[in-house]
Design goal:
single chain; 513 residues; alpha+beta; Rieske Iron-sulfur Protein; eight-stranded mixed β-sheet; 8 helices; 24 strands; disulfide bond; 2 iron, 2 sulfur cluster binding; metal ion binding; Rieske_Fe-S_prot_C
Length: 513
Amino acid sequence: MSIDKNKSISIWMEEELPSFASLNHSLATDVCIVGAGIAGLTCAYLLCKEGLAVTVLESGLIGSGETSHTTGHLAWLLDDRFYELERLLGLEGAYLAAQSHLEAIKTVKKIIEEENIECDFKELDAYLFRAPEDPPCILTKEFATLQKLNMPVERLEQAPFPHFDTGPCLRCPHQAQFHVMKYLLGLIKAIERMGGKIFSHTTVTQVIDGSICRIITEENHEISARQVIVATNTPINDRFFIHTKQASYRTYVIAARIPKGSIPRALYYDTLDPYHYIRLYSHPSDEESDWIIIGGEDHKTGQEEHPSEKYLILENWAKERFPNMSKVEFYWSGQIIETIDGLAFIGRNPHDDNVYIATGDSGNGLTHSTIAGLLLTDLIMKRKNPWAHLYDPSRKTLSAFTEFTKENLNVAAQYGEWLMPGEIDRLNQLHSGEGAIIRKGLKKYAIYRDSEGGLHCYSAVCPHLGCFVKWNQSEKSWDCPCHGSRFATDGHVLNGPAISPLKPAQDALKNID
């Protein structure tokens, strides 16, 4: 089966999750959770276990967001090196980070066992090997910090690949992998059994803090809740503050078959920035093969001219190292949110009393999401949690000031597009299946030509904070280079923080050309 790269279909998406009705009335609940990916559903599961009335709202299909576009790694070996976390957060902060992610893996295992979820969960080792471009000291420093943290680590001569000599590497046990969509299905069944309510195709437009919070939907229904959790990958309720401390990136993944057992089952990472990440997966329909799943080639959302080429670069990298790999059959990409210090923002939304957020997965979204479930449940139940200050959304990491400045200068530079010309001058330059920006006077328009030749015209201004969107030919989307909002060719929101679609401007076509 050959998958069209433009469709960005992950290997997990053949697992269908149940469909739910949209919310068509107002209601009251103890906790309202906005977002039904792994973060939202983990929070819902744990809060239902506490006996609270929980309502989950999802703008699209359940699990159709970034959770379905992951690679299913459950790792405490974080992609931001621990020696770097020690520099930013001190030894205690690095220790708490390691312990919290380790506890997240244990929690996933416990939930799987208690709920009898069949999701291909497997505990295994992780191998970290040096990219040729990096200095040898990078592994030495990481090894030393992991020893100081008393985390299990071993130095080896090379990772256990048959055809690829990685050179020296670190082996770190007690990681895991699973099939994330099967896991979500298990969470959904448990939430429903405990009385939790789930609604899909329900877009939230406002979250208003208070002793009783108010959540307003696009259809103007209102949910009253004592607490609200916004678990939408990037917060839709915070227009500015959090977005100055994190940035959106696209990451790319390919999957191909290899002879079964030819590569030991483990998680593999190199030290490149952006790094490559590798795992294996067995599908019951093919007893002769494993799937090798390889990701990498990250870039800031909306800031790559030729995103489709990332798949080719990734494929060439893989073929050089895994010559027994067959043709690539799955291509997909996902959105990751990188924070300035490498750890998620989980806790009370700044300046709110009863609104909580979970964002900033930093490449470890599945464990960060599980940490969110544990931490936010403790905060809502008014229990102390040793990780609360580590993940506090209001934290100020002064030692990460350089990264903070760099990211915000990058965002500021994108507003220079207000002064730039359009990408094309005339509509006849636009081929079927393509999009481009056209300037007409002081205004810019995002115009897409569909397969039948029809034109779809929208304002090119992102409704979040006014950046101009860029066309992503690989995924047929309009991507904002400032804060990562993404829009489909019909203008509707694919990724926040924007909550409003691109503004239709079909009438402008009369004055173009």
